[in-house]
Design a protein that fits this description.
The protein is mainly alpha-helical and 139 residues long. 49% of the residues lie in helices and 4% in strands. The chain has a domain of 90 residues. The chain is built from 6 helices and 2 strands. A two-stranded antiparallel sheet has the order 1-2. Helix 4 packs across helix 5. The two termini are 16 Å apart.
Length: 139
């Protein structure tokens, strides 16, 4: 079982890569903020509040969550499944770079996530999980 710490760090890195809470000069909240969706998730579709169309590379209808806590919980669920090897989309042998191409269809996304995690973009999810287990065992 993957640690809560690793899930949190990975989700924080995704939020950063998605630009969540990024302050832009003269701009209001970005789309993920308005949608309470820090991971720009589309997985849940309409949960009763509709969806919002994103723009740019990989434009999609992202889920609007009722609260930031609900959006973060959805992101954590998705990442926990991936890191536990229970995802049908993301496999443990994927590098963070490959993960990023599936997640965001953007080659720089995985590089940014890896940088936030302090690892190479070629680090696999299995490598992250093993390093996390080693860290937990040494505490």
């Amino acid at each position: 079982m993957v640690s809560d710490s690793l899930v949190q760090r990975f989700c924080d890195a995704i939020e950063s890569a998605e630009g969540f809470f990024q302050k832009r000069s003269g701009a209001g909240e970005d789309l993920p903020q308005r949608c309470n969706n820090p991971g720009d998730l589309t997985d849940d579709g309409d949960v009763g509040l509709g969806t919002a169309r994103s723009a740019g590379i990989g434009a999609a209808d992202i889920t609007i969550y009722p609260t930031l806590a609900a959006g973060r919980a959805a992101l954590e669920k998705k990442i926990r499944r991936a890191l536990n090897g229970a995802s049908s989309v993301y496999t443990l042998d994927m590098s963070i770079e490959q993960f990023g191409m599936k997640y965001a269809r953007d080659s720089h996304w995985g590089i940014n996530v890896a940088d936030d995690l302090g690892v190479s973009p070629l680090t696999t999810l299995a490598d992250l999980v093993q390093a996390d287990r080693n860290e937990q065992a040494s505490e």
